[in-house]
């Protein structure tokens, strides 16, 4: 299972990278705005900085919603760095653009996916990754994890190569449940990764080991 961090915050990306378990980064326009990164030039510079920190895939989202605009923007983003994955919204022109990018060998992440049918279309178009937003489904009393199971079943039935990137992950249990269900990737905040470290019995056990060691010294 790959671990991506879902942020545009460089300190948090560095911290996750230093832990040694980070496989990539996902961003979106809201995450960029949260870091105060605005305007095309600054946003592009920021993507390059992220690529310099991590070794893996970095999803960069297009703003256009029409086919020509998505193609133009996606090609510019893909030119920025070899690690860039063009993130395209799940809309009609987005699916057409994903097919175009796929034919040209440009990797894509189909975002804002909330149903199995949308995920099936993304795979048919040749998306590299599909991003079901599990937290946002949970927010409206719909089982986000069930969507992961449905997509896993469909992709396995037909051996689609599109990777399931569980997005909108909010906490450690989302990570563990996605791992059980066979999501290929999860993307979440730093807390969802570092939270996996924690167990009170580990802390109590370590304190006891150190205490006993110190008795003999
Ligand atoms: O990057 C897309 C997705 O992970 C957003 O998450 O927490 O805003 O629903 P969230």
From TrEMBL:
HAMAP family from the UniProt entry: Transaldolase_3b
Active site: 87
One term of GO molecular function: transaldolase activity
Keyword tags: Cytoplasm, Pentose shunt, Schiff base, Transferase
Presence of the UniProt keyword Iron-sulfur in the record: no
Principal subcellular localization: cytoplasm
Function: Transaldolase is important for the balance of metabolites in the pentose-phosphate pathway.
A GO CC term attached to the entry: cytoplasm
Organism ancestry: Bacteria, Pseudomonadati, Bacteroidota, Flavobacteriia, Flavobacteriales
Catalytic activity: D-sedoheptulose 7-phosphate + D-glyceraldehyde 3-phosphate = D-erythrose 4-phosphate + beta-D-fructose 6-phosphate
The protein, known as: Probable transaldolase
Pfam families assigned: TAL_FSA (PF00923)
Pathway per the UniProt entry: Carbohydrate degradation; pentose phosphate pathway; D-glyceraldehyde 3-phosphate and beta-D-fructose 6-phosphate from D-ribose 5-phosphate and D-xylulose 5-phosphate (non-oxidative stage): step 2/3
EC number(s) reported in the record: 2.2.1.2
Domain of life: Bacteria
Intracellular or extracellular location(s): Cytoplasm
Family named by the database record: Belongs to the transaldolase family. Type 3B subfamily.
GO biological process, one term: carbohydrate metabolic process
